[in-house]
What we know:
It is a single chain. Helix content is 38%, strand content 15%. The chain is α/β, with parallel strands linked by helices. It folds into two domains: 7-132 and 286-301, 3-Layer(aba) Sandwich (Rossmann fold); 133-284, Rossmann fold (3-Layer(aba) Sandwich). Strand 1, helix 2 (52-63) and strand 2 (67-71) form a beta-alpha-beta unit. Helix 4 (86-93) packs across helix 5 (109-116), helix 6 crosses helix 7 (165-174) and helix 6 (133-147) packs across helix 11. The chain binds phosphoric acid mono(formamide)ester. Phosphoric acid mono(formamide)ester is lined by residues 50-53, 125, 132, 135, 262-264.
Amino acid sequence: xxxxxxxxxxxxxxxxxxxxxxxxxxxxxxxxxxxxxxxxxxxxxxxxxxxxxxxxxxxxxxxxxxxxxxxxxxxxxxxxxxxxxxxxxxxxxxxxxxxxxxxxxxxxxxxxxxxxxxxxxxxxxxxxxxxxxxxxxxxxxxxxxxxxxxxxxxxxxxxxxxxxxxxxxxxxxxxxxxxxxxxxxxxxxxxxxxxxxxxxxxxxxxxxxxxxxxxxxxxxxxxxxxxxxxxxxxxxxxxxxxxxxxxxxxxxxxxxxxxxxxxxxxxxxxxxxxxxxxxxxxxxxxxxxxxxxxxxxxxxxxx
Length: 303
Ligand code: CP
């Protein structure tokens, strides 16, 4: 677990160890942080834009007493501009820090970085259609926190699932738990890719593909909405409004279900439902800080 580049790396005991540490991190934040990790330096190297992932990792390191080195737009503000290879950039930055959080524009970028890095690499999202494992960890923690169980849950994942990094990573994590049922809801053109379905088949995880939110919404414990990148989809000429979650959908949902979204959102998730108790997406984003603090402590404690 020196490097974290995909969700499959996590075993259930490791996930539960992380989830046991996470509430401790919430208490540390409540008392203003700790200096326990004051010798540690975290580098955040982001080649694509981010609000939640970069700020929460940086806040996590600061709350733990460490320091940060950061570039928010490495394609412009690193030697990528001069044609430097990712591997060389990682070799150099690893001299200056103890851990690198990397968002790279190519699928497999984090794995390439891990292959040459003497310090831990954490994948903060690779390419379109790669993975975002720390998002999946905070998503799973939120499900656990809201539903109090992980076995036996029904989860609907909605959106442009073919390239959905968060959905892909979360599907891998959920596949580790018993009697989970997954519903992938998308137009056929944007459905989840066969590599995930093959994995679910191997793990004997029950799933259904559907293009109807209405048919599924009343059956599930967790509704995991994702952003639909309308620019990418403009040439598909699809009516995507039927996948939106708004007040008209709320009445069809279980009263104790949970609505999640990795954010940022667009029209697929109406702000009119923000005050509904089932809307967990802002709690989910806040959990990102605590889960990432816990993850950093696990990495540093095992060095
Ligand atoms: N959920 C997520 O990865 O958000 P950012 O792109 O803002 O980091």
